[in-house]
């Protein structure tokens, strides 16, 4: 539950940052920063999936 809350907070922060850049920065910086935010989101997603997979693997009984 706590990881979902952290993910929601990161998402809100990313939205706030993208709106702040849209007012007077070149399109190159805007595209680069939005790409970095997408990569950060995907990184969090992959880490959560790996963590879930390891947790499920360790919970299985040994054969």
Question: What report would you give on this structure?
Answer:
The two termini are 31 Å apart. This protein has helices at 2-21, 27-59. Helix content is 84%, strand content 0%. The protein is mostly helical. Helix 1 (2-21) packs antiparallel against helix 2 (27-59).
Summarize, please.
The protein is mainly alpha-helical. 84% of the residues lie in helices and 0% in strands.
Total DSSP E strands: 0
Radius of gyration: 17 Å
Largest sheet: none
Number of helices: 2
Would you identify the regions where 5 or more consecutive residues have pLDDT less than 50?
A: none
Structural key phrases:
63 residues, mainly alpha, single chain, 84% helix
Fold blueprint:
Layout: H1 2-21, H2 27-59
Helix pairs in contact: 1-2
């Amino acid at each position: 539950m706590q990881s979902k809350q952290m993910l929601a907070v990161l998402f809100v922060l990313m939205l706030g940052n993208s709106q702040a850049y849209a007012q007077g920065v070149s399109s190159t910086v805007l595209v680069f920063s939005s790409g970095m935010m997408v990569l950060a989101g995907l990184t969090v997603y992959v880490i959560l999936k790996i963590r879930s997979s390891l947790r499920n693997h360790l919970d299985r009984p040994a054969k």
